[in-house]
Every structure is written in C-alpha cells, then in structure tokens.
Amino acid sequence: MVEETKGSVMLEEGWVQVKVPVPFSLKWVNSYLIPEEDGYTIVDPGLRTDEAIRVWDEVLGELGLRYADLSRILLTHQHPDHYGLAGYMQQRSGAPVYISRRSHAYALRLWSENSTFAEELQRLYAEHGMPSELREAIGANLDTFKAMVSPQPEVAYIEAGESMRLGGRRWQLIDAPGHAKGQLCFYEPERGWMLCGDQVLPRITPNVGVVPGEGGDPLDAFLRSLSELRRYDVTMAFPGHRDPFADFGGRIDELVQHHERRLDRMVELLSEQTLTAFELCETLFGSRLRENPHNLRFAMSETLAHLVYLERRGRIVPAWADGVCRYAASAR
Ligand SMILES: [Zn+2]
Ligand SMILES: [Zn+2]
Q: Which residue ranges does the record assign to the Metallo-beta-lactamase domain (predicted)?
C-alpha cells in the first residue's frame, strides 16, 4: 500500500487531519482543522509553497469551506514547515494567529530582512570543522526559506500555563522546549488528547539542535520536557508529522533510549580518537549528507546538541586549535 502524503483524513469529533506537503524528506506536515461555533481553528497550516496552497484549496473545497471559515490560526511552534503559511492564511481569512512569545521571537530573528542567522550558523559550523563549501550551501539553502514563510503574520501571544478552548473543550498549554524553544503542546484531560507539535513524533526522532545565540543545553531541555510529558495520561496524540498515535508514553520511552544510545556511541567514538563535531557528524550520519544541505544542517546541529550535553556532564572535553574545536572522551 502506498501511503497518502497529502490530502485530508477525517478524525473523531469533526477534526480533520490535513497532510500538507513539504519539499523535504519529512514528506508532509500535519495541520488540524478543529470545528468551532464560528468556523474552524486551524493548527499549523504548513510551509508556503505552491503545492501546499494547491492542497489547501482542494481540501477546503472538498469540505465546502472557504478561507473566511478559518476563525483562528494556532501555531505549536515557529519552524517554517508549521509557521510558513500562517501569514498567507491570515491574509485570506482575517483570522488571528496565536503563538508563544518565544517562538515568535525566534521566527523574527530567523526570517526578518536583516537577519544574521545564516552567518551565525556558518560561523558556528566553521568552528566545528565543517568545510566552507558545505557551510555556504547551508547558508544558501536557509535563504530559500524566506519566501516560504512570507508574509509574516500579525500575532497574538499564548503562553504555557494558560488554558484555552479548542473544539468546545478546555486545553492546557504546556511548555515543550528542546526541539524548538517556545514550542507549546496542548492537552485536554477529559479525553486524554495531546496536540504535541514536533515534540513527540511516531517513527521519526524529532530533531534536537544547537541554535546559535540561544545557548543552553537543548538536549537536556528536550529530555526534561519528555519526562514531564510522560506524566500526562494520553489516549491519543496528534503530532506535527506522520499520523495520530495512541502509545504516547511508549514513544517517549523509545525517544529517550534513542538519545541515550547516541550519547554512549559518541563517547565511545571519542575515546578511540579526537574528532571535530563535523567529523563525528559524518561518522554518525554518513557522508551522503553532503549532497543535502537541509539534512546536513539538521544532522550537524543535532551532533552539536549531543556534544554540549556530554561536555556539560564532563564525559568529553573540548580542545581548541587554530579556531577549531576537537573533542575527546574524558580520561576515566
Ligand atoms: Zn519543528
Ligand atoms: Zn515539523
């Protein structure tokens, strides 16, 4: 059976899962249409591409809806595959856009006209051993996203700790950092439903990466968030990619184990030889990534997040020479 990667799926309570295509290996992002008294809330409308807009036109047509029926746009987080179409949808519907303050700050930092994010990222990767032609390819790839998140929406802020009504029920807003600083998950205790953005995904491990200028320890933030989310009684989770799934707790356990294995593997590799983050990244993810700047960026930032985590726990030590950092496992 070939899996459908675009179009709509009817869920319980009148919810509609809309698979919005994205032009990279994730295949699609999930948007959810949630029926309200005055129309629909739309969660994470997708990335702005011609194909995504075509799918939306089709899906709304099939459901007998117009853009004006979208009464509210809700964003779990700021990544372009979720946030990109928000401004376009707002222009067509007049709907308010809700996002956390932190997520919005990040979106502005990345996608504003005078953003220096691509340069900051290239500088970080240079310090960690990535060759210049690959850094430049990543910078050029990042630039292509600007059109896919335009226009930027006018937003109103929602924050963790608050609650809001969605589909006639009351949902709790939960801070879920690590994959994206500022990301919110939404939990409805009566049915045990969790809208989890990209924090917990079935079949894919959410990317956890170092973001220049943010500091901190993103993998630690991610693992702490997972252990907090593990305490919620969830019967159905609605993720940002792939399909809704029931075993939320089991999936969290798998993700934690995945990162523990990766951390151990990295220490093992660094006890055999001293490596830059880039060399380690290629050892872990393969040199085929050189052909795909988008995936290389994710892999490199993910490698750095694990290195930060290990360094902070004294399991590895950095050594700088000629402006480049190399890591070795700590002597036991
Ligand atoms: Zn994301
Ligand atoms: Zn995503």
A: 28-241
Query: How many Å lie between the centroid of ligand 2 and the Cα of residue 27?
Result: 10
For residue 175 the two structure tokens come to 């801070």
CA of 202 to the centre of ligand 2 (A): 12
Please tell me the number of the ligand nearest to residue 81's CA.
2
Alpha-carbon distance 198 to 225, whole Å? 12
Give the span between the Cα atoms of 176 and 224, in whole angstroms.
Answer: 9
Ligand 1 centroid to Cα of residue 323, in Å, is: 31
Considering only the top CATH level, what class is 7-113+149-257? alpha beta
pLDDT of residue 25: 83
DSSP 87-152: HHHHHHH---EEE-HHHHHHHHHHHSTT--HHHHHHHHHHHTT--HHHHHHHHHHHHTHHHHT-SP
Where exactly does CATH 3.60.15.10 map onto the chain?
A: 7-113+149-257
Question: What pLDDT was estimated at residue 132?
Answer: 97
Ligand 2 centre and the CA of 76: distance in Å? 10
Q: Which amino acid is at 169?
A: R
Q: Which residues of the chain have pLDDT under 50?
A: none
310 C-alpha vs ligand 1 centroid, how far in Å? Answer: 23
Of the listed ligands, the closest to the CA of 298 is 1
| Residues facing 101 on adjacent strands | none
Residue 3 identity:
E
Residue linked to tokens 């993720």: 239
Q: pLDDT tens-digit profile of 215-231?
A: 899 999 999 999 999 99
pLDDT at 2: 55
Q: What pLDDT does 238 receive?
A: 98
User: Length of the chain in residues, anyone?
Assistant: 332
| Paired tokens of 202 | 């079935």
